[in-house]
Amino acid sequence: MSSIQVTLCEARQLSKTPSSVKGKIGSRCPACGSSGTEIFFEIPEFPTLSNVLLKTAEAARQWPKAPIRLGFCHGCGWIGNTAFDSRLVNYGEHYENSLHYSAVFRKYAERLARYLLHRFHLKGKDLIEIGCGQGDFLHSLCELGWNRGVGFDPSFSPERAHSNGRQDIRFVRDYYSPQYANYRCDFLCCRHVLEHIEDPKSFLQNVRQALDGRKRAKLYFEVPNALFTLRGMGIWDPIYEHRSYFSRYSLRFLFASSGFRVLSMRERFGGQFLCLDAEMASHGKGEGANCTGGRKQLRRMAGDVRNFAGAYRRKVEKHRAFLRESKRRGKKIALWGAGSKAVNFLNVFRREKAVEFVVDLNPFKQGMFIPGTGQNIVAPEFLLNYHADSVVVMNPIYQREISAHLKSLGLHPEMIPA
Ligand SMILES: [Zn+2]
């Protein structure tokens, strides 16, 4: 039986008989230490890296796989892969997840940079970014506010640095830890990293320790919004790299219990991102862990979690019918966006073999292959000769940008939201 069949069977079983999951208890919650998480969804095999650059279709199909077993903690609202093994996830120079080739994303990042500079009065200050990628965002923060920056990222590649030779931006190809406590820091930002960390609480406590002498330092963290996945039907969001899926409640709880004071939280990027501003809590122990209405939020999330498998199954079956019918009629289908969502989508529908190519604006991804299934990643111009009948849009926020790009090429395929 293929992994996809197992997935659907289990999703069906879980959604029809919620009581059947009650006996399935996952590992201890890494955020609050509660003894058991409730398993509510399972994908038996998933590529261990979704944003890895693979040079042949064969290497892509042979890429290692491991289970995703999502659990929910009734104590703090943490959701995550209870089967996660960090030894299988190795971020190096072959890891590529920059979204800066999209104008929509660049605009978002620039507005965010301006917001942070204004909110925290960052002018002539010392900044640290954890998980800086190739330094695009850190560069914006430093250039717009005449700040000095240090970026930490093991996948940083000096040849691709966007620092334009600036002397006041440095990069460290390593994980940030207390050994870097001597680095000056007025402001620390960390975007789309926390969800990758095996033990998020220890990670935050380490950050707290590293910043111990910087009592006035401010922090900004950004993670995918679990509620977009659960309620907004973002069913293609789970990937192996993601240990955790945070909601407002669980993120606030984690920060407050790790020695920080949460200043504000908000949803951005069409509700897909959760953004948190924080500062050091005055007495080591964080403040605000028990936010108003927290228990109500937690109960509601428990309901969302129970409904997820059913919503997943309905959406998968709808897409499967479309892919099969398109294939039967000899239609050509391309996907747009070779990121995590595409890896999930294509691995779910690997038996359908209905999609041959995936378009991506990132030139470093073009010519590479999708982990697990081996589709070729191509530039938009490839479609001039391929003439796709349909383009599946993996992320709805890019729909207008993609539509405009296709029109500029004189192409008018049917647009299918994933
Ligand atoms: Zn917990």
Report on this model:
By secondary structure, this protein is an alpha/beta fold. Among the domains are: 182 residues, 3-Layer(aba) Sandwich (Rossmann fold); 88 residues, Rossmann fold. Helix content is 31%, strand content 21%. It has eleven helices and 16 strands. The strands form three sheets. Strands 6-5-4-7-8-11-10 form a seven-stranded mixed β-sheet, with helices on both faces. A five-stranded parallel β-sheet has the order 14-13-12-15-16, covered by helices on one side. It binds zinc ion. Zinc ion binds next to loops. The site of zinc ion has 8 residues, from loops.
Mean pLDDT: 88
Q: Kindly report the CATH topology of the domain at 103-284.
A: Rossmann fold
CATH class of the domain at 103-284: Alpha Beta
What hetero molecules are bound to the protein chains?
A: zinc ion
Question: What proportion of the residues form beta strands (DSSP E)?
Answer: 15-25%
Largest sheet: 7 strands, mixed
Outline the low-pLDDT stretches: 1-23
The CATH superfamily of the domain at 103-284 appears as Vaccinia Virus protein VP39
Radius of gyration equals 21 Å
- The coarse overall form would be globular
* Distance, first to last CA: 25 Å
Helical segment count = 11
